[in-house]
Fold each of these.
Amino acid sequence: MLGFPIALVFANGFEWYAHKYLLHGTPRKGQPRYSPTPTNMKSHWAHHKIVRTTAYADDGYSEGLKNWRVRNEVKSLLVLTAGTTLLFPVAPFFTLGTYYAAGRYFYVHRRSHLDPEWGRKAIPWHYDHHMNSNQDANWCVTRPWFDYLMGTRVISSADLMESNPLGIKLPSLVEKPLNTLARRLLPKTFERLEENRVTEAINKAKGVDLPMPGAELEAGAV
């Protein structure tokens, strides 16, 4: 049964990696970004453009599989879970955990963009991913775990910030010692967190809005 929670941690790490390197791609000077999955990157940039102009909403999710971006997302999740299915004979609980993680990813992501107010409150790290001045940050969707570990959580405001690094509602008796322990064990993480928050506040005050990921393609870069 230990495989199930391991799968959840693995899925969150993969979520961070795939979002950063596959969906956004690696920037290259004077050239379009590189992604080994260019169709996924194109789909994701289209998603960003829509969300940025509709206050975080993406009605494409209401169309279901008729929408090519939704089909692309579902297909990607099915491919990933097909891969983990190969491990079922030796790691059944790990495999089941990846099924759960994939299903929860689609549910949470879809609901957040169909109900922006819910999304803003339930997964503020993803709201910040789309609505901050810098959209190349806040890579996690379901939970912010690896954004904290990797120093890529950029908080837009204190009132929007999750109350603990797990991004889970916890009783205060548990949450307070957890936050204290996290700051004690990961001091550099929280230093970066504050630095990122200050940078975002400065950008907002100056009206700075960094280019949307993939904008170099629209500008005609080759």
Amino acid sequence: MMAKGQVLLRFLVLNISGFALLFAAWLQGWVSQLISGDGTRISAGIAVVFLGGLGLTALRALRIDRAVSAGSAAPLGYGLTSIDAIRIRLGEELGTVRNIANALVFLGLIGTVVGIVIALSAVDPDAVADPAKVAPMVAELVDGMGVALTTTLVGAVLHLWLSMNYRLIAGGATAFLATLIDARAREQQG
């Protein structure tokens, strides 16, 4: 049986740990390197999408914990309904978090393509022989590669973080459904 507050507590432990690691990376100067490595600010957009997904995950964790405390699906806003209907609705809600997590990877890949386009657009084959024009081309090439690598890294790391949150609430929802099924089975037997 799932205890009251278990999903929310796990959510808090996971994300406090994640933000502690992010703070440690900031202290090492790695976060500022990532910020300066992306002149397009695509990484900032990825971070905003992640924070939205994290907020949505927090709401889902809170709702599941309330439902566990009440011992019914009413706090989920579903009222009295079949277990199958609850399962489908929970799956749809949790699917939104999973889709946001997957979108983070794709946003990182879009940033990769943008960075490569920036890098390659700086190369002028006719100017390669002119030493005065090579340095600006190399600088733009490096900037483009910085965007490509930074957005890939940010998208992948935040995808992993949000995916762990998804697995956490999906596990909580599964345990809650199992509890409901057991309670209904006992009601039918008793």
